[in-house]
Write a structure and sequence with these properties.
heterotrimer; A mainly alpha (354); B mainly alpha (303); C alpha/beta (277); A: 354 residues; mainly alpha; globular; C: 277 residues; alpha/beta; 6-stranded mixed β-sheet; 5-stranded antiparallel β-sheet; 10 helices; 23% strand
Chain lengths: 354, 303, 277
């Protein structure tokens, strides 16, 4: 009776299995992506507004109208239109924005870093506060921390994010002046920094523009805290739930019998096990923040993907709306895929079974 | 029932008729739910919402659409004559919120009525038949799940045009996928049970099996899920309203009211804050009720 | 023989919808450096007795005792600090299924070292050497591999041996073995028991062996306690088992098939509600 040869090579042996699993997931994702395109394509065709008029304007002559009609491919049958759409999407051509007259994919690339910075700041705050809160609630079950998690969670699931954002601006910006107002950076600093990554915190730090850095931080603080609060509500609940499940396991009793210190039992034994599903939760929460950013960016005049979407919407720029929706859908799917893969990497049992 | 009290009759463990058994089960569920104080608070809030919506004309002191004197009654702070103040069109905000409860209730009810049967139908069919039916239906469901709810609703409303009916349709379209998944999971557990086989042997057709037997069993967890979802539906509707995509002015939709009050936030904070409080309280009510229902109907927490 | 452990009037109860349920009732016994078996069916309270001795009664339960002394130390009032000096170096417990009782995301070797290297009182290399030595002592042929393995990569027998190594590395005086062979195949059971036997004898430890298998217990232990519904119904030397007085013990004995016994149907246990008093 010896240890099976499956243990040979340890962690790295998991790579080909990971590859296969990733391959299967990518195939699923590809089908989903195709479906996303079908959905956005069909939505685009539901529009009661005449898409030709949106391009040529309502005072165009009939010949211009007809030329545009053919150029947009609207004379072809539906499935052919879809293939054109598919080909364009795959090559990155999402159409041209009616508003900016630039390719939509360029517009999106320009505004995306702002959303990325905001969502990332939000998830960092949410995890930093949510995980310890959840652990605390699991360890002190039924007492104060548990109630705190409950209340935080209820508020997080019940309050409209844009309303809290407005209240936050009222209290912390207008009345207390602890943070800066809407926008990413004051006009005074706007041209002191050249945008390389588009992530202003990093750009200003890299260029040593500390005044601008502080200003960006002052602008980022409130919306990031807002998003962070909502992700904290979710993460703390799930952390508590996972920790409770782990603390009831037999190996915790073993650790107690061995005389292991309590803090080590919680943070090294239980949390390490809870981390496996927890990482998935964090990835999903990150995806959820993309959704939250749409409304948050509107309130804080944050020039990101969310605001791009709502602006395009209010200007009836259907292509831009659909392009933005598609991109967000892809990111969402990507994050789900990532969370699945993370699960495989972190849990040694899953690594072997596949 | 002369010498047996109603309560004993309901709780009897030898029900004489199906009706008695059903009523007894409902009573048991209700008395368990009643013990949960927070759930009762939630239920109270929901009841208040419904009452407010039905009797809006009676409860609201002023007209929600036509304002008062634009010279003297604009942007008044909360007082006894105007419980929540007035907005920039000199309209009583409290009256607007009371009438707005009709819109909120309508959205919630219609979405539930549209999305739940669709989700149940798709999920149970996929789970029962399996094979390529399952694959096709679930792939479609997954595709809808691949978009964040607000964003997909936004895209649909962008396509269909603003307005509360389109908002309802858009939200309903984005709401049914989780119910379908849930129904499918439940169906997979039930479909191989002996009593389903027994019914099939009695000659029941597939539609009858699904609708008559499988769906009722899925019902309790789906109900819990829908109730918990309602807060999310309200928030999504409010979000759409905030972006100008829901009910159009001068209709007193709560999200749109917040957007309208945004300009006056600093000096006249009540215009945007009051509708937000209304949204918060109603969502909270549904969340508390949903949590309570889950504890009673599905304590293992599988939803 | 000086007593290592003295238990008198041990009671454990858990709350339930109909009031507190006593799962351990007035259990009294003493243990020296000998092997004591506790036999009973599921729900007889034998596991909870073992846990109570180590102060590991689950939070929802209540444990009271007239006397619970280990080597002169009163365990009923023991502080967290006291328990830390006791659990591991002086008292230890092996549980039933290594699939659940080992931390699934931590390598086995590290878990064994953890039992030895507490509060950094030994170097990492020293801990590793001791762990490997211990794995050899439980007759694992490739201790290096097991050291680096994760629990799910080990078979049941190997996992239990690793558990034994983990619980004996700090050289405790008292060991509680809670159904240690119940999750194993019969042939593996004998191997594991033999290893446990050698180690316990070599170190002169006190052993409480909890099991539902009367025959196993009688062959392995010096004395046997028979528990039913939380009470000790019989306390007898293993060699005197066939002279058992209590009808429950007799019933247990009679339902064991003997290869040279009678050919008729085996007797089934009759339970007297008087035993529940």
């Amino acid at each position: 009776m010896s240890v099976s040869p499956a243990n040979e090579g340890g962690r790295w042996r998991a790579l080909p299995i990971l590859g296969l699993k990733a391959g299967k997931l990518i195939a699923t994702v590809a089908v989903t992506f195709l479906g996303l395109l079908v959905v956005t394509f069909l939505i685009g065709r539901v529009v009661p507004v005449d898409p030709v008029l949106a391009v040529v304007g309502d005072r165009a002559s009939k010949s211009t109208y007809d030329a545009a009609y053919i150029a947009l491919g609207l004379d072809k049958p539906l499935y052919q239109q879809f293939f054109i759409y598919l080909k364009q999407a795959l090559s990155g051509d999402l159409g041209v924005s009616v508003l900016t007259k630039k390719p939509i994919i360029e517009d999106i690339a320009r505004v995306f870093p702002a959303t990325l910075e905001l969502a990332t700041a939000g998830i960092i705050l949410g995890t930093l506060f949510g995980v310890p809160l959840g652990v605390w609630g699991a360890v002190r079950q039924g007492r104060l921390p548990d109630q705190v998690i409950r209340v935080v969670g209820l508020v997080g699931y019940s309050a409209p994010i844009f309303w809290l954002g407005l209240l936050g601006l009222l209290v912390f910006y207008a009345k207390l002046q602890w943070v800066a107002g809407p926008g990413r950076i004051d006009i005074a600093y706007e041209y002191t920094v050249t945008q390389t990554t588009g992530l202003l915190l990093i750009d200003t730090a890299m260029q040593g523009e500390w005044g601008a850095f502080r200003n960006v931080l002052a602008h980022l603080a409130l919306p990031a805290t807002l998003l962070g609060y909502f992700s904290m509500a979710y993460i703390s609940r799930m952390t508590r739930s996972f920790m409770l499940a782990e603390l009831g396991q037999e190996y915790i009793i073993t650790a107690r019998v061995k005389g292991v210190a309590e803090w080590r039992i919680i943070w090294v034994h239980a949390l390490r096990n809870a981390a496996v599903p927890l990482v998935t939760v964090i990835a999903l929460s990150y995806a959820g923040l993309l959704e939250g950013s749409v409304l948050t960016e509107t309130v804080f005049a944050w020039p990101g993907l969310g605001q791009y979407l709502t602006n395009s919407l209010q200007n009836a720029d259907m292509n831009a709306v659909l392009g933005g929706t598609l991109v967000i859908g892809i990111i969402f799917v990507g994050l789900n895929l990532l969370s699945d893969l993370l699960y495989t990497v972190l849990d040694p049992r899953v690594r072997r079974r596949s | 029932m002369s010498d047996v009290s109603t309560r004993d009759w309901l709780l009897s463990d030898r029900p004489a008729s199906r009706r008695q058994a059903r009523l007894g089960q409902a009573y048991r569920t209700w008395s368990q739910l009643r013990r949960n104080k927070l759930a009762m608070v939630g239920l109270g809030i929901v009841v208040v919402l419904i009452v407010m919506a039905i009797f809006a004309n009676v409860i609201a002191p002023d007209d929600p659409i036509r304002g008062g004197d634009l010279r003297t009654m604009r942007l008044l702070p909360p007082s006894w004559s105007h419980l929540m103040g007035t907005d920039d069109q000199a309209r009583d905000i409290f009256s607007r919120i009371v009438h707005g409860s009709r819109l909120t209730l309508m959205v919630v009810a219609m979405v539930a009525v549209i999305a739940t049967p669709i989700g149940l139908a798709v999920g149970t069919t996929a789970g029962y038949f399996g094979g390529w039916v399952d694959v096709v239906l679930m792939r479609t469901t997954d595709i809808f799940l691949a978009f964040p709810r607000l964003i997909l609703a936004l895209a649909f409303v962008a396509a269909l045009g603003p307005g509360i009916e389109n908002a309802i349709i858009a939200i309903a379209i984005t709401s049914w996928p989780p119910y379908a998944r849930l129904a499918r999971a439940e169906t997979l557990q039930i479909r191989d049970a002996d009593y389903i086989a027994a019914i099939r042997l009695q000659g029941a057709g597939r539609a009858r099996i699904i609708w008559g037997h499988i769906v009722p069993l899925c019902l309790s967890s789906v109900i819990v899920r829908v109730t918990l979802d309602m807060a999310g539906i309200i928030l999504t509707a409010a979000g759409l309203g905030f972006l100008g995509l829901g009910a159009q002015p001068p209709q007193p939709e709560w999200g749109a009211m917040i957007a309208a009050g945004r300009r006056f936030m600093i000096d006249f904070w009540w215009v945007a804050t009051m509708p937000g409080i209304a949204i918060f309280v109603v969502s909270l009510g549904f969340n508390l009720l949903g949590d309570g229902l889950r504890d009673v109907l599905d304590p293992k927490g599988e939803t | 023989m000086t007593d290592l452990l003295q238990v008198a009037g041990l009671n454990v109860s858990f709350p339930s919808r109909d009031g507190p349920v006593r799962v351990v009732r007035d259990v009294t016994f003493n243990l020296g450096r000998e092997r004591l078996g506790i036999v009973g069916e599921s729900g007889s309270g034998k596991s909870q007795t073992g846990r109570a001795i180590l102060g590991l009664t689950p939070g929802s339960g209540t444990m009271t005792a007239d006397r619970l002394t280990f080597d002169g130390i009163d365990l009923r009032q023991a502080s967290v600090k006291t328990w830390r000096t006791l659990r591991g170096p002086r008292m230890s417990m092996i549980m039933q299924d290594p699939k659940y009782s080992l931390n699934p995301v931590m390598k086995v070797g590290l878990q064994i070292v953890e039992a030895y290297r507490r509060r950094g009182d030994a170097t990492r290399a020293d801990g590793r050497d001791r762990a490997i030595a211990m794995l050899e002592a439980v007759q694992i042929r490739d201790p290096e591999r097991v050291f680096r393995a994760y629990p799910h990569e080990l078979s049941g027998g190997m996992g239990q041996r690793a558990m034994i190594a983990m619980m004996l590395i700090a050289e405790p005086d008292l060991l509680i073995a809670d159904e240690v062979t119940s999750a194993l195949d019969v042939t593996v059971q004998l191997d594991v028991l033999r290893i446990l036997d050698d180690l316990v004898r070599d170190r002169g430890m006190g052993l409480i062996f909890i099991s539902h298998d009367l025959r196993l217990v009688s062959s392995f232990c010096d004395r046997v306690l028979v528990m039913y519904a939380g009470r000790v119904v019989e306390e007898i030397a293993a060699s005197d088992l066939h002279h058992a007085q209590h009808p429950y013990t007799q019933g247990l004995l009679n339902c064991l098939p003997q290869i040279d016994g009678a050919r008729g149907p085996l007797q089934t246990l009759t339970r007297d509600t008087a035993w529940l008093a």
